[in-house]
Amino acid sequence: MKPTDTRQDGHLPNFLRAIIEKFCSDSFFEEFVGDLEEVHNTRLSRHSSFWSTTRTTIDVLSLLRIRFRNKPTPDRTYFDGSLTRNYVRIAWRNVSNNQGYAIVNIFGLAVGLAWLTMNAWLDNFAVRIQIGVGIFLITGLFALAFGITSVGYQSFRAAMANPSDSLRHE
Q1: Maximum Cα–Cα distance across the chain
Q2: 147: which of 6, 76, 103, 129 fits an S-S bond (Cβ 3.0–4.6 Å)?
Q3: Could you give the CA distance from residue 95 to residue 98 in angstroms, rounded to a whole number?
Q4: Of 23-27, 31-35, 112-116, which gets the smallest average pLDDT?
Q5: Residue of 72, 71, 90 lying closest to 161 (CA atoms)
Q6: Residue 72 has pLDDT above 70, yes or no
């Protein structure tokens, strides 16, 4: 065995120290090397020097792999005129599947509660009037249009967003 490759006294091999020193900051180096030497000593007490050195080398190289991993950035632009129809379709699907039914259900609950509250309030007056259905239909259509517009706009914006921009800013 070469003295530069491994040592039997439980210290890390010199080539691993050089790799760690190259890619670690000075403030983190001593703590990191100390932890690795502790793991290496534990492995030396249980297994051979070759196996523990190999396993520690794999650990250090796997940490370097994480450091150098890059996220792929797509080359083409996603604001393409031919894809606009698909973006609108995705936005409509999001509105109809997720938010449309919620808007209708909330509107139904609000109409029921408003009718009961207004009916009880109007019973206290001397002059009686009937609550028409028209006012509820108008406000319901207004709420539905507002909900579809706001959710549709957000879905369309999310569909039109360039994924490479969000990957760059992560």
Answers
A1: 106
A2: 103
A3: 6
A4: 23-27
A5: 90
A6: no
Quote the tokens at residue 147: 């909900």
Whole-number Å distance between alpha carbons of 8 and 10: 6
2, 10 contact by CB (below 8 A): no
Distance CA 98, CA 96 (A): 6
Question: Whole-prediction pTM value?
Answer: 0.36
Side-chain-facing half-sphere of 58: CA atoms under 13 Å = 6
Burial class (CB in 10 A: 0-12, 13-18, 19+), 13: buried
- Domain ranges in the chain? 14-68, 81-168
Within 10 angstroms of residue 53's Cβ, the number of other Cβ atoms is 22
pLDDT tens readout for residues 82-93: 666 777 777 777
- Decide: 5 and 15 in contact? Cβ < 8 Å: yes
Whose structure tokens read 């983190």? 28
Tokens 């492995």 correspond to 43
Q: How many other β-carbons are positioned within 10 Å of the β-carbon of residue 5?
A: 13
Chain-centroid distance of CA 11 in Å reads: 41
The 10 Å Cβ neighbour count of residue 57 is 16
